[in-house]
Amino acid sequence: xxxxKETSAMxxxxxxxxxxxxxxxxxxxxxxxxxxxxxxxxxHGLRFGDYARYRRYCTARLRRLYKSLKxxxxxxxYTKRAxxxxxVTEVRFLHLVLYTAERAWSHAMEKKTLxxxxxxxxxxxxxxxxxxxxxxxxxxxxxCSFKGDSRTSxxxxxxxxxxxxxxxFEQDQNWDVALKCFKSARAVYEELGKYGDLExxxxxxxxxxxxxxxxxxxxxxxxxxxxxxxxxxxxxxMEGPALDLFKAKLxxxxxxxxxxxxASMTEFHWLGNxxxxxxxxxxxSILKAQELEKDIHGSAADSLPAEKKLVLYDKIFAAYHEAxxxxxxxxxxxxxxxxxxxxxxGLDKAIGAILxxxxxxxxxxxxxxxxSKLNKVRDDKNEKVTKPEELVRLYDLLLQNxxxxxxxxxxxxxxxxxxxxxxxxxxxxxxxxxxxxxFYLAKSYSSAGKRTEAYALYCQARSLADxxxxxxxxxxDADQVMIKELKTLYNESRSNSCIEHxxxxxxxxxxxxxxxxxxxxxxxxxxxxxxxxLLMEKxxxxxxxxxxxxxxxxxxxxxFPPAFQPVxxxxxxxxxAYNLIEFPSLDARMKKDKKGFISxxxx
Length: 603
Hints:
CATH class of the largest domain: Mainly Alpha
Main location: cytoplasm
Region (Disordered): 1-24
Order of helices and strands: HHHHHHHHHHHEEHHHHHHHHH
GO biological process, one term: SRP-dependent cotranslational protein targeting to membrane
Pfam family, one: SRP68
Helix content: 55-70%
CATH architecture of the largest domain: Orthogonal Bundle
Number of helices: 20
Family: Belongs to the SRP68 family.
């Protein structure tokens, strides 16, 4: 597919011209720059943000182009060969310049997206590679203005403008020039998106959307926009290779803002306790986590999809774990001062408790997602349907989380009323989760056809829900949402227990009929090869002779005809000494025949 797209992108406009026209005028080459680059990027690493893989592809592509064009730079000693307008005799020379610019750009982005960010030396190298990309993109624009058709020339101009804007964007200078470059590229793609086939229009529209955040950020830096920090963060959630530079810049700006805000943060408040924070890294990590918590618990949290909430929870966990690692490092390096150690231990306990609460919230969100898929039928999109066993596993995790949080809050001396209240809340949540787990465990047994076990578990779930409901209603500040959920659980447990009871009675009434039907289905041999064991092989185990209720395969008695078995037989005696015995000659003792006179002549 990539070869077909590259072939379509290398079309020449003057295929319909006469031979005399081709002699007098130079051919105009057509390169669909955006389509060519988008296809190469998506197929060679940038779908997953792997710039190193894309750079290797550009290097290999350039090597093939140099070799096929016979435009190498010498075998032993390097000899520079410049590409000028006169050199471009076919479209592959334009591809040569384009992929050289892409290689330099991908190398710069590879350094930009390092896990810990580029250091001073790497940043200097990064800017140098971006300058190289701008140089080759400008050469590509110049060559296309002479050798390309009007559309190719416009795309090359937009490409060069984007590269120049990216360089200025990274250098944090000349924001007005960067804004002009980005706007120029956007204007070209908006105009090109009105023409061509549907695929080209979609690509141009996507490119315009990718350029929009960079333009808004430039306006924000110039001061011509009232853009807030939260709006910048929402813009940074967009996807696309053109936005990676913007995301890195936004993350650096947010980190700088947090470090400035962390200077005024001296204490951490938790359940009426105040813990001083002396480490700057701990402050920044806690501030980052608190900003992310505002997105989850804010007014716009209801409009967030579940997948984005899960991503935010992962970022919160990473920030709090980073804060805990800083606190524990401070504990190791702390002096013999008991007050400092107590404060750090209390801060570690507070961060751990918040982590436990957020873990419970995340697992409750997973339960909500699983419940929404519980009663769904598998559709054409092959969406995974939740089984009751998965909900049982999630509630096991929630019970473990609440137990850990209860142990953490209950530890220590001189507990305050808020800590005691949180411990009681953990006990109450544990009762609710136990009732929910029992309910879905009953559903699991019901789907397996085990009516007795399902009925007993539904009754147990109803009693657990009733006990939790009474305890919750006796509390002063009862959660009305939880009360409503428990009432629903109680009613469903009661109705399902009645259903299981009725199904059990119906199955018991039909048991003789089903038994006779199953016995009539028993075959001596059968043709089904899925049966694990035959009935004759299970005589020493107590199992149903007609199979379980949920087993669809008819039981088999024995293989017929029976398989061959080895049997003992009489031993074979081989006389091996007979051939080695030398017997004496008996010729002397044998009786000789007497012959007559005439027989001597005829004998």
